[in-house]
Structures are given as structure tokens and as C-alpha cells.
TrEMBL record:
<dbReference type="InterPro" id="IPR011008">
    <property type="entry name" value="Dimeric_a/b-barrel"/>
</dbReference>
<dbReference type="Pfam" id="PF01037">
    <property type="entry name" value="AsnC_trans_reg"/>
</dbReference>
<feature type="domain" description="Transcription regulator AsnC/Lrp ligand binding">
    <location>
        <begin position="6"/>
        <end position="76"/>
    </location>
</feature>
<dbReference type="InterPro" id="IPR019887">
    <property type="entry name" value="Tscrpt_reg_AsnC/Lrp_C"/>
</dbReference>
<protein>
    <submittedName>
        <fullName>Lrp/AsnC ligand binding domain-containing protein</fullName>
    </submittedName>
</protein>
Length: 93
């Protein structure tokens, strides 16, 4: 499984519609509107890099209002939930 974090610049008048359209795409798990250097952040998952290569330029970038994307591929997850899940394996919890 490949996780990609996609930073997305969007025309300001199109942010809500673009966010919903991106959230509705297969492979997109979450979309956050945010303050800072980008307008939206999308968390995506796909079976392989080829699917990410299709998702970002082929679908996310083509959503009306999207101006630019920057994609970061995740190597590992260090979330607390992942650690808790790992330690609970076999404990019946």
C-alpha cells in the first residue's frame, strides 16, 4: 500500500467544491482545508505507485479550480494508533 500526501493549491472561490470533488475520488481517504502555504491537503492510498501516478495528475489535478499539486510519498507511519495496534496484536484487546 502506498500513501501519498498531496498538497493542493485551489482558486479561493472554488475551495469547498474542489475539496468535496477530491474527497469523492476513489483512493482519496481524507481532504483537509488548511491555513498556510496550501489550500487543501489530501491523504491518499493506493496499491502501488502507478495508481498514485494516475490519481494525482489524472484526477486530482483535473478537478475544476485546482491550480497546482505537490505530492509527497510516505515511507513509514509513526502515528500513536499504529504503535498501539502493534502492541495489542495477540492480546485479545
Amino acid at each position: 500500500m502506498v500513501t501519498a500526501i498531496v498538497l493542493i493549491d485551489v482558486e479561493s472561490s472554488a475551495i469547498p467544491e474542489a475539496a468535496q470533488a477530491i474527497a469523492d475520488l476513489p483512493g482519496v481517504d481524507q481532504v483537509y482545508s488548511c491555513a498556510g502555504d496550501v489550500d487543501l491537503v489530501a491523504i491518499t492510498h493506493a496499491a502501488d505507485h502507478e495508481q498514485i501516478a494516475d490519481l494525482v495528475p489524472g484526477h486530482i489535478s483535473k478537478v475544476p479550480g485546482v491550480l497546482r499539486t505537490v505530492t509527497h510519498i510516505a515511507f513509514r507511519s509513526y502515528s500513536q494508533r499504529d504503535a498501539d495496534d502493534a502492541f495489542s496484536i495477540g492480546s485479545g484487546a
